[in-house]
Amino acid sequence: MPVSTRSKGKGGKQGAKKTAGDDPDSVMISKSEKPKTQREDGFTVAERCTERLGRQNKAKRDARDDRKLNPEEQVLLVPLTRDNILQHFNPYKRSDLQTVLNLRQFHGLLPDIDLKECYFEKAWGFRKDEFVLAGWRDMSVEDMKEAVTEAHPVIDGSYAFPPSKVSINTLETKEDIVRAFWELTHVPAEVYTIAVGGAYVLRLFPGVNWGNVVKVTGNPNRMNEYLRWACCADLDASMIRGLAGACDLRGIDEAARSTAMCGHADVVDLLANEFDARIDAECMAGAAVAGLNSMIDHLVEMYGLDPDEVNQFGLTALQNAAMSGRVCTVKHLVEKHNVDIHARGGGGQTALDVAEEEGFTPAHEECASYLRSRLS
């Protein structure tokens, strides 16, 4: 998963000097006097400007809201209805993500800040540091280019950029980069990566009638790779079947693990039932790392997996969730599945040790605080 680049905030000088008369509300001053930042009525000039802009924006909103709304807009204008619909979407599913992003076309009904904070962060549990360009103003051009590049999938040995995007190397300013890759300001990098990867696979096989294809010819290793991206994006089941028929068992197992990390229970079941995919502790680890409680429940109930079992890295589901700062999943594992919070992984660490060691975000600190309270 791409890691967001952090850089120190840069202090900046205030705007250019203004002369008397630039602002009709400004106080006339002589050259020998220092500029006043406080008006006689107790408000600064900046506050007055903000107030004036607020009135203008409200007038625009009022004028916009007076128009006749279509049925879709009428539904989406009711926040509770909208929230109940969207929170059940899976952002890793390409069609669900596209539906949510399309709502941005309804002017003012789903602003980017709402999409980021209300849905990706609160409803779907992503951390603030997973939005790689959210803090672009404090990043250097080089850091932004690196973050954008790493947010794209590596397919066929190179980074796969959507054909609609310009080359990142041709962009010279931070503003150019954020305009070209605006999605990464409010869509988590991992979600963006999977969406791009799924679209890449769709472009590779245009117009294929997968229902009549028994086996797709091609490089087995590449087919394994294509299957994984198709499963992660939850593409059409016939396409997944066609690709899986061209893959070896190793590729099918890897696809199942990646799919569990994206929360697609129906695709996991398809791979297990029709292609004998192995559903094991690696699938559980992926679900815990991604914070997908419903997938954890599915693996326990359908396949009998034990969340206390360690994966290939010697970590339990609880330790994987704590390592990734998935607060809700840590609580879910402890309170619903009664996992062993004293369990030590391959490195001899408990989940609390892992959360404290990884504690570079408030989410990690919250995980550690919760585990301490349970231990006491």
- List low-confidence stretches: 1-39
Percentage of residues in strands: under 5%
Number of H- or I-type helical stretches: 18
Shape: globular
How would you spell out the order of helices and strands? HHHHHHEEHHHHHHHHHHHH
Which CATH first-tier class of the domain at 280-376 would you pick?
Answer: Mainly Alpha
CATH-derived architecture of the domain at 280-376: Alpha Horseshoe
Radius of gyration: 25 Å
The secondary-structure class comes to mainly alpha
CATH fold topology of the domain at 280-376: Serine Threonine Protein Phosphatase 5, Tetratricopeptide repeat
Question: Strand sequence of the main sheet, in spatial order?
Answer: 1-2
CATH superfamily of the domain at 280-376: Ankyrin repeat-containing domain
State the separation between the terminal residues, measured CA to CA.
34 Å
- Can you count the beta strands? 2
Please outline the major beta sheet: 2 strands, antiparallel
Helical content class:
40-55%
Mean model confidence by pLDDT: 81
